[in-house]
Amino acid sequence: MRRGDDADGDRLGMNTTVGVDLGGTHMQVGVLDESRQLIGRSSAKTHAERGAEAVLDTIAEHVKLAMHDAGVKRVDAIGLAAPGAVDHEQGIVVNAPNLHWDDLPAAHLLEERLGTPVFLDNDVNAAVYAEQRLGAGRGHDNLMGVWIGTGIGGGIIIGGSVYHGQRRTAGEIGHVLIDPNNPLRRRELEHQCSRTAIARDIADRIKEGADSPLNKFVDQGVPIPSSEIASALDVGDRVTTEVVQTACGKIGNVVGSIVTLLSLGRVVVGGGLVEEAGCHVVEPIEKAARESCWPASLRNLEVVPTMLGANAGLTGAALLAARRIGEAS
Fold first, then answer.
1. Which of 89, 109, 222, 281 has its CA 20 to 30 A from that of 215?
2. What does the alpha-carbon distance between residue 82 and residue 105 come to, in Å, rounded to a whole number?
3. Residue 80 exposed, middle or buried by CB count within 10 Å (0-12, 13-18, 19+)
4. Are residues 106 and 149 in the same domain?
C-alpha cells in the first residue's frame, strides 16, 4: 500500500488540499497531493449573474468533481482564491466587483456545503504565493507579483509569507494613482495599463485611422484577444508595439517605486497577456523598473514571467489552505 492510501484505495495525505481559483468569468479547481502535485481538476463558467448562492453551489459541485478526478474521497482543507478585497482571517469577500459580492462570508458558506475547512485569500495573493513556493519566485523569500488581466492585481511576499497589511488589502498595485488630473476611470494604473486598457487603446488608435493586423476586430466590434495582441507584437505591428510598450513602461515605473520602498530583488508578472506575449511584456516592464528604482544596487532587479501560468491561482489556494490547516492544528 502506498503512503497515504487507505484500505479502500483512497489516496489521502495529511496535506491533500483543494484549490479554487474563482474569476468573474471562469473558475478552476484542482487537487494537490502531499507532494504538491496536481492530481485532479475541474473547471466551469462562473455565471456570476446567477447570484452568490448559485456560484457557491457550482464551486462545491466542481470541488467534488476534481476530487473524483483525483481519486480521493476526502481532503484536509480547501483554499478559495477570490478576486477583489477579501478579509482572509474572517473568510469574507469584502468587495468583488466582477462577482457582485459584498461582505459575503464565502468561506463559511462553502464550508457548510462541503463539510471541510475552507480558507479564503485574494486570487493574486494565491498566485504569487504559488510562484514563490513552486515557480518563478522559488528561492526568494521577499518578492512581488503583478498580474495583468481585466484589471491589474498584485501580491507581496515578505519573509516567505503573504503580506496582507493592517487592513488586509496589501498588494493592490492596480489602484495606484498615476494621473490624478485625468478623468475618472483613467487615473489609476489599471485604468491605463491592464489588458483591457491595452486592447481599448489599440482599438482607439485603429478608429483614428492607424493600420494594424488587428483592424478586423475593431471593424467587427469584438474585443481583441490576448493571443492576437501577442501575434501583432510578434510581427512588429507599430500600433500594438507602441501601446504595449507605453503601458508596460508605466507598470515598470510603479514596480520600480515599490522595489525602492521594499528593497526587493525579484518581481513575477503573470496573467493571460503575459502568458501569450512573454518577453514583449516582461522586458519593457523590467527596463522601466530598473530605471525607476533606487539605489543603483537595486538595478539588477529581475522581472520574470510566471512559470505556473493558469495553474498559479488554484495551486496557491491549495498551498495556502495546507499551510493554514497546519497552523491551526
1. 281
2. 12
3. buried
4. no
**Residue 143 and residue 83 share a domain:** no
How far, CA to CA in Å, does 250 sit from each of 54, 167, 273, 294? Answer: 39, 26, 16, 17
Residue 4 has pLDDT above 80, yes or no: no
For every residue of 110-176, which 3-state class applies, written as one string?
HHHHHCCCEEEEEHHHHHHHHHHHHCCCCCCCCEEEEEECCCEEEEEEECCEECCCCCCCCCCHHHC
pLDDT in tens, 263-273: 999 999 999 99
pTM greater than 0.90: yes
Do 301 and 319 sit in the same domain of this protein? no
Amino acid of residue 224: I
pLDDT band at 3 (very low <50, low <70, confident <90, very high): very low
- Closest of 127, 152, 131, 153 to residue 141, by C-alpha: 131
Helix-then-strand count for the chain, H and E: 11, 13
The cell 484589471 sits on which residue? 151
> Are residues 112 and 144 both part of a single domain?
no
State the pLDDT at residue 98: 87
Rounded CA separation 249/24 (Å): 27
Q: Among the listed ranges 11-15, 67-71, 123-127, 228-232, which one has the minimum average pLDDT value?
A: 11-15
The pLDDT confidence band at residue 12, using thresholds 50, 70 and 90, is: very low
- Per-residue pLDDT tens digits for 37-70: 999 999 999 999 999 999 999 999 999 999 999 9
**Residue 107 structural domain:** 17-128+311-328
Residues 146, 255 contacting (CB under 8 angstroms) = yes
Question: Are 97 and 165 contained in the same domain?
Answer: no
Q: Is residue 156 within 8 Å of residue 174, measured between CB atoms?
A: no
Dihedrals φ, ψ of 195, to 5°? -60, -40
